[in-house]
Amino acid sequence: MFERTSVGLDVHARTVVACALDAQTGEVTPHRMTPDYAEILGWIVSLPSKLQRPSEDRVKTDAKDALHLARLLKLGEITAVRIPSADQEAARDLVRSREDLRGDLMRARHRISKLLLRQGIVYSGGRAWTGIHDLWLARQHFDAPARQLTYESSLEALHEISDRRDRLDEAITAMAYGSEYTPVVRALQCLRGISTLTAFGLAVEIGDWDRFTGSRIGAYLGLVPTEHSSGASRSLGSITKTGNTHALRLLVEAAWHHRRPYNSPSRLMRSRWEEATTEARTRRHAGNRRLHNRWMSYLERRKRPVIANVAIARELSGWCWSLATGQLETPTST
Description:
By secondary structure, the protein is mainly α. It has helices at 37-46, 62-74, 86-118, 131-139, 145-176, 182-188, 196-206, 217-220, 245-255, 267-275, 278-300, 305-325, and strands at residues 5-11, 16-22, 28-33, 225-230, 233-239. A hairpin with a 2-residue loop joins strand 4 (225-230) and strand 5 (233-239). The two termini are 47 Å apart.
């Protein structure tokens, strides 16, 4: 009888910590499970079909990576992924260019506001960065030529970035309602907080929604908390943020809209519902009501709003998946 793998079991009343040692490769495979005979036996049987990198392996070279990939391919442990088409990559570039402009615009606004603040000039005519605020900015003047030139240059840069952003917004809107992403965009817009730009950004960044489930898409986007567990103790930390950062930001911003009471939808929201499919319209009220109720439950439990909003964003991702795929599964927050 050929002996390939040795297994050690550290058995406790509630947990079993196992470790398998491959005699040929020296690879160590740790595992934690419950003291259930079927689970233990199933894990042992699965050992010949697994190949994992040893935790003590700190040497990384191209040759070792290639060999590791070859072993995984031989054992069927490599998961196939969808390769975006050239058109999909182009749409993603457009969305990310719009995201870059958003950051540029924010920095340009900060430069102007801080320049004015250093001179003791503060706008008090209502909401900033509106048409009225733009007129107020144009009326500001400085006696020092150098400061006036600096201010005019900052204003010019702000207007240039705004014009570029508007052109990209028009292009994104045209693609959102006249491309392969249109059905997903119209479905996602049934949820509060998801506008045309947000829906198109999620559709482009995620791409193939069918590769996920309602409970797994949150982990893909980095919306699940980190965890450190030992024995009977379980400690949760901040979210992992390991997923697509653009999609993560879109969902977190959209989640804030569900804090407001869900009473009478706006005219814009009702017009979006009319363009969606029957299945999406059927799910819209369930999703919007549940997300608002979840917000209220977190506030009643005195959760910090920023933490509650991340939890809502995680569940919102599940509702987006449900609408995008047409699944009737009700996503739940974990």
